[in-house]
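User: My advisor, Dr. K., asked me to get a structural model of this assembly before our group meeting. I'm new to this, so sorry if the format is off. These are the inputs:
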Amino acid sequence: MIAKSVLEKFKGIVGEQNYWDSPADLALYSFDSSVEKPAQPEVVVRPESTEQVAQICKLCNDNSIPLVTRGSGTNLAGGTIPVTGGCVLLMTKLNKILEINVKDMYAVVQAGVITADFAAAVLEKGLFYPPDPGSQKMSTLGGNVAENAGGLRGLKYGVTKDYVMGVTFCDMEGNIVKGGGKTVKLCTGYNLTGLMCQSEGTLGVMTEFVLKLVPPPKASKAMLVSFDSIMDAGNTVSGIITNHVLPCTLELMDNFTIKTVEEATGAGLPVDAAALLLIEVDGHPAQVEDDYQTVLKVCRENNGAVKVANTSEEKEKLWEGRRKSLSSLARLRPTLVLEDATVPRTKIPDILVALEEIRQKYNVTIGTFGHAGDGNLHPTFLCDKRDVEEMARVHKAVDELFAAALRLDGTCSGEHGIGIAKAKYMVDEVGEGTINYMKQIKKGIDAKNLLNPTKMGL
Amino acid sequence: MIAKSVLEKFKGIVGEQNYWDSPADLALYSFDSSVEKPAQPEVVVRPESTEQVAQICKLCNDNSIPLVTRGSGTNLAGGTIPVTGGCVLLMTKLNKILEINVKDMYAVVQAGVITADFAAAVLEKGLFYPPDPGSQKMSTLGGNVAENAGGLRGLKYGVTKDYVMGVTFCDMEGNIVKGGGKTVKLCTGYNLTGLMCQSEGTLGVMTEFVLKLVPPPKASKAMLVSFDSIMDAGNTVSGIITNHVLPCTLELMDNFTIKTVEEATGAGLPVDAAALLLIEVDGHPAQVEDDYQTVLKVCRENNGAVKVANTSEEKEKLWEGRRKSLSSLARLRPTLVLEDATVPRTKIPDILVALEEIRQKYNVTIGTFGHAGDGNLHPTFLCDKRDVEEMARVHKAVDELFAAALRLDGTCSGEHGIGIAKAKYMVDEVGEGTINYMKQIKKGIDAKNLLNPTKMGL
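Assistant: The format is fine. Below is the predicted structure of the whole assembly, which you can bring to the meeting.
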């Protein structure tokens, strides 16, 4: 319970208009996009500057108040739920693009900028910011960095951490800390930029980034390939990569997802296909043509029927179908458990086999789609969390899915992070020694364990 | 002073053949490739497995013995000098390439593998490992990761940290810790892979890596461009990038360096040129041709005379000249202070102006060459460390060089790291709050401060 005098201090820092403590307001910030159990904060504040953030950190530290940083709350692993109460710090007013440096190809942004808004602003200046998480229309750049968000372009262009050149954040003593900078090479002290990526709000409150930009591709070609067998689709993915083509997008949808999306959107997807691959190659026009020919050859070798998108409208329609996978699946049942177990790319066929076995064994409903080119599928379990018996089967199925991913040299989380949902799986992947090491880092930085406590099991 | 009984324990772990404590042997490991003051260890050991490394870590921790990990000792900032004595741990027997996975494009290697040997082995399998630090024929991959080594290809392909997918290391409690893995996307817990890159041996002893490989470029074109004015060369660098061409190599040599290299090697460099740029573009053949035309246009606009290397022998000869810059300069005077102040790429002309002012003001001899495309020049001060008055001028000149780099939004270290040499400059770049944060990480991980103590000022 935070003392009234301390609540007044919060209000003093951010002002009346950026302060909330009524039950209705607190309830709004008790959950995120995951299915994890909600928990209410005691106060919500919305700072307008790095300096205000630093003051809030210090106030929390001085009064032992848990501090949970929140962007748009699109987290899928419970990462923004204030499990132990305390203060939720909203980043939504730190939403300015401070600089887009076209000549040196970087941008300086505040953490609360919406991902898609930033990408559009960059494009307008003739440059390209590749990371495109599924939630990009809502998610903040700060959330993307804290979770090291992936997206559809990871295979060729990498993920969020590959674009963070510099970061400014506040520690719990109220210091302003600076990692990295504006140069493409930088080796001054610890790689704090690397450490903060994927730290899930547990090591500081990030307020500003220097993000790397790249020249946009000159040409691209998109195609939709349908298969009568999902294994053929899996083998196509691995065949494309071993032929040294790195598509900018290489997405898979299984039959269940195809049918569901088609019902929801009428996008014109082939509902009889066992699986679809959405493939886009980009780069120099001649490279695009060569890559396209290679992809075509591999698809045909694996019995795929290729349909090329001839206009950008056609392409957008195909992509829209893929982007609507999650929301379409969500219409079917009350609860949706979206996983992101990931394997080395050539092991996609193996994980598909494992998934089918798990589906049958536990009689669960799974729609599978995702970034096959990265080995990062999203098997999505459709269920009803009020049905205890069904949820028990789903949880066992998820346990086995992760075990299969680890057996195949994979990971429990390709891009969603650990949060609350996957904390228990971490030890199997990394071992006790690694967990202990992570705890030592956390303890060194945040001795009272106030920064997003319990997340990642820390 | 390490007790005799403890020395016996070291010997017991690694065996007689991997243990040294005679004064002559210890003297060998008292210095590295920097000009920093030597310091002797008390014992040198050469483990043959991760398990032996873990045992040595624990033994050092239990007996409060400083532990300095050493690959080939090519460090230029004093990073491998055992300043407070203790144990030097040689990684040279952990030198196996454990796996090159052609289909999933990664390799698993031990930390003591020589960089160039690894790159050659990868090439033999039809793949490409881009990082190419100047010391690649001697340096180890472990040293490259610990320092986040750069090289000639940083501009287009990134630096060492961009290729480390996973790391195995030992902490001081003797735990074996695992960061990252074999998947291209991975978000399980802290980004320990990112943290260990650039940690200069202060956070653990790294024994194994998973390294990312890429398809090799299909074509390339190299050229040598000579200028009558170094400013024209600087403007050409920035013109190429703003035209959205990212050469795989974009190197600069000033007149002093050109003349010195030519005298030493007779490589056929134009000794009257004020500056040279060595430029290589690579990729798809059509892209290479387009990029070449753009580079040609920019060079001509800036009064550059372009000579294309028509054969791989011609190219090798040009590159050999650049690679010999450091050794050629080293012949002129007894002491060589090689810096790596780095600025955003378009500020190359500004840092060149600053360097010339500094040279005149302190009457020092500077040969400048380096990775202009990254904004990462290597101004090299030629001097004699026995001449106190001259060294005072050199140190003042270096101070001003770093101040100029910071004024231009740059950094004190683009790729050599901090070590002993640059610890005092860090605070101006990152501020007290950041230094404090780094200290808290170090304290959390290595409470007794035994892992490469004093480095980075920690």
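One thing worth pointing out at the meeting: Chain B touches chain A through 92 residues (CB under 8 Å).

User: Perfect, thanks a lot.
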